[in-house]
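S1.2 Input.
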Amino acid sequence: MMKMFLNPDKPLSTCKEHSCDDCNAKTLIHCHFNGKLLMRFLMIAFPCLLIAGIGIFRFNYLFILPWIIFTLLFFGFIEIRVLCSHCPHYAEPESKTLKCWANYGSPKIWKYRPGPMNIPEKIIFFSGILFIFLYPVVLMAISQQFILLSLLMLFIIIGVSYMYRYMCKKCMNFACPFNCVPQETREIFSEHN
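S1.3 Output.
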């Protein structure tokens, strides 16, 4: 039976430690993910995507399919190449899919590419995110769905704020443009990885 997440007692394959027991980075960085982190992320992302989808559908139901297809392709395929393949978690050999909180279950079809994102990757990443969230905002504004639009904006603000404060400050993917792990913590993590 395949485990849902990586063994939290076993160091990552990029880590030079033999045990996580005395690691001074494990409380500062999310080296291992769990169902609680996944549920937190889904509780942030799902309402935003649901409200956006409802707004698009109410504008014109024919406009929802391209948005759904692009969103699935972006988060399940494109983002994996331009962002996730830079993460130490992506290097884990025991799974062919991601076992993290943001893209759980997405296939690892590219090689692990340590280091920062390049400029084209950043452009692709930000363009995809902007399209996914601006497309419904524009359609809701055009169709004067101001209550739904306000609700979407509220959930986006709450979600971004929560992600920044509780998830991005502990994320090991330093290549991500949203990563806000303090430099001191990055150095502690890098001593092990």
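S1.4 Remarks. The chain has one domain: 35-192.
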